């Protein structure tokens, strides 16, 4: 009786762990999926894009820059960034969304 309960609990814990790992990988793939969709531009095109991106990012505060850098350049998940900055994952998500929207508006003017 005890052994069967032990095996049942062990199996359930294994399943929970597997689901957590799967969700974490899924979130990380979603956050970094833009990398897979980029085409390889010419040297001058990539240089122009890099200069434009640096100019846009220089308009952000150091705190805002660090959020985008950690997510997009270092490849961290929102949860990992949240832990480093001592804010909630939802807070990181809102910052990211707000910053991308602001950079998009600036770039389109």
UniProtKB/TrEMBL annotation:
<dbReference type="InterPro" id="IPR013324">
    <property type="entry name" value="RNA_pol_sigma_r3/r4-like"/>
</dbReference>
<feature type="domain" description="RNA polymerase sigma factor 70 region 4 type 2">
    <location>
        <begin position="53"/>
        <end position="97"/>
    </location>
</feature>
<dbReference type="Pfam" id="PF08281">
    <property type="entry name" value="Sigma70_r4_2"/>
</dbReference>
<dbReference type="InterPro" id="IPR013249">
    <property type="entry name" value="RNA_pol_sigma70_r4_t2"/>
</dbReference>
<protein>
    <recommendedName>
        <fullName>RNA polymerase sigma factor 70 region 4 type 2 domain-containing protein</fullName>
    </recommendedName>
</protein>
